[in-house]
Amino acid sequence: MKKPEKNSGFTLIEITVVVSLISIMLFFAVPQFRNTLLTDSINHTSRWIMGKVRVIKEYSTSKQKLCILHVNLDSNKMWVSEETMTEENLHQANEKGFEIPGDLRLINVEYPQKGIISSGQADICFYKAGYSDKALIHIQRDDNEKVSFLIEPFLPTVKFYEKYVGFEDL
Predict the structure, then answer these.
(1) Domain limits of the chain?
(2) CB within 8 A of 138, min separation 6: which ones?
(3) Using CA of residue 95, residue 73, residue 47, residue 134, what is the dihedral sign?
(4) What homologous superfamily does CATH list for 12-169?
(5) Phi and psi, residue 160, nearest 5°
(6) For each of the chain's 170 residues, which pLDDT tens digit applies?
(7) Which of 38, 76, 124, 128 is the most buried (most CB within 10 A)?
């Protein structure tokens, strides 16, 4: 005698429910994914600047060395040096520096006393005593949206502004 066949498969209702759930999840996830792609370079750059400033301040204080964050506005690059580096080490540090992503551009670096530096290289010093130069780093996206990073002399954190901010605005 033959055993009855089992129908293995999904019913139309089960398939409809699964497709509906996947559609709802994609409806909410895709716009967030698109926004992540658009803001990824500014987030990456922000994390680098904020993290690097904190590390440089701690390092210069603990090792009792003058450290400098070099912001090269012409090559769209940032790199760090310290006072005891040789010429060869300085060149290597420059070569290994952080390159700003292609859709971003360093506009300028602003100091309260020195003013605005828009071309060449701007240096932000981090001193042995634990303080640094006060400076604003301005970055622009391809879509003309501008952001600013404020480095405070006595604070380990960098303040991020989602617009162009000068010292007269603070």
Answers:
(1) 12-169
(2) 106, 107, 108, 109, 110, 146, 147, 148, 149, 164
(3) positive
(4) minor pseudopilin epsh domain (3.55.40.10)
(5) -105, 130
(6) 566 666 677 888 999 999 999 988 888 777 665 555 555 788 899 999 999 999 999 999 999 999 999 999 999 999 999 999 999 999 999 999 999 998 999 999 999 999 999 999 999 999 999 999 999 999 998 889 999 999 999 998 999 999 999 999 87
(7) 124
139-157 residues labelled b (16+ CB within 10 A) or e (exposed): bbbeeeeebbbbbeeeeee
State residue 63 phi and psi, 5-degree precision: -90, -5
* DSSP reduced 3-state for 125: strand
